[in-house]
Amino acid sequence: MHLSDYLLLVALYKYGGLYMDMDALWTRAPQDRMTEFIGADLSDSPEDLSWALDDQNNYLATGLMRFQRGRAMFRHIAERYFTITTYDPSCFNCYGPKAFTQYVKSHQQVLISNGMQILPREGLYPYNWKEAEGAIKKTRPPVDPEQELVRIEERGIGLHLYGKVTSKKPIEDGSVVAEALRIWALELFETSSSPSAGSVEQRLQGPRVLYYTEMPPQRSGKPLKSSTTSSATEAGIAFLEKTPGAFQGLDAIFIRGSGKIAPAASKGLITKKASLHITIREGSVTMDPFVPLSLASFSKSPATATSKTNRGSAGARKIEMDLGDDVTMAQLNLALSRIRYLPPSTSSLSKAWGGTDEILIRVVFGELQKELVIPVVRKAGQRL
Known about the structure:
Pfam family, one: Gly_transf_sug
Organism: Lunasporangiospora selenospora
Family: Belongs to the glycosyltransferase 32 family.
Protein name: Glycosyltransferase sugar-binding region containing DXD motif-containing protein
InterPro entries: GlycoTrfase_DXD_sugar-bd_CS (IPR007577), Nucleotide-diphossugar_trans (IPR029044), Put_A1-4-GlycosylTfrase_plant (IPR044789)
Oligomer: single chain
């Protein structure tokens, strides 16, 4: 019954990395690739207070986490709980949430000083196991599925569906999960049995408007309830905040649809020549520098990035990136996910920025040539 719990412990201890349940969804990518984190959830069982993380009955859920390899926590739990004398197959939570919570509770000062962050419930578990079915059922007024998804994405990076409760139930049209699939599904496969099956028109998707959120200064000087758990949670809240100008989550830009697949290519990776062309009317863009390297590591021909700056009367910035001749759709989407808009600096303008801009993104992927024109609007933000 607990084989997956044991394998999780062994895999993360030996290799490290990010573990994710098959019934969990991303709403946007984590801010970085290094921060170690685990998410908290809230128990409604008074019996759990004896081992909960705090007096609010928070505990550590194990549906999604990221750690470096060799962390003693994983070996300790595996060796302590999975023995002939200690293993109890009837205890559902003993070798997952309960074991992790008890270990972190007794070692939290060391773990937190080493950078571990505890994400609040909204970060990964906006619905608890009793509420999860509501995510796949059609919403009823006044709840709108798109607005509910916006609320979840603004406050967190994941959504757990608790497959033990939801796996045998249909995803209803008009539900939060159906809305997520409508926005993010790559549509690589046609469900029809017609001759066109496997050929879904490719298109470039992006936000109708990019709201550039200007965040207020970080909070400081606020007393914490404790010097351990609360400080880890405070850091976790900061980790969940959206990066202004990033094309992540509901603002993601990506290619979706399989396009026409040649029979000879259907059994292997499909690669094509790809390039990006970006023009900004007033501001500029930056891209994560590891993108070309990531592409090059998968491509037969090195991916190169060339940028050109054109400062006309409007102060436009033009960037052209040749990603290579053998680029997969996944690699192209990775590059698109690393684009980040920057508003014009006050020093480069004769007057203050008016709070609006425009981005033109042109993508070439084999025979596909698509453009997006994305208006930018400044928006005042609020910290989580």
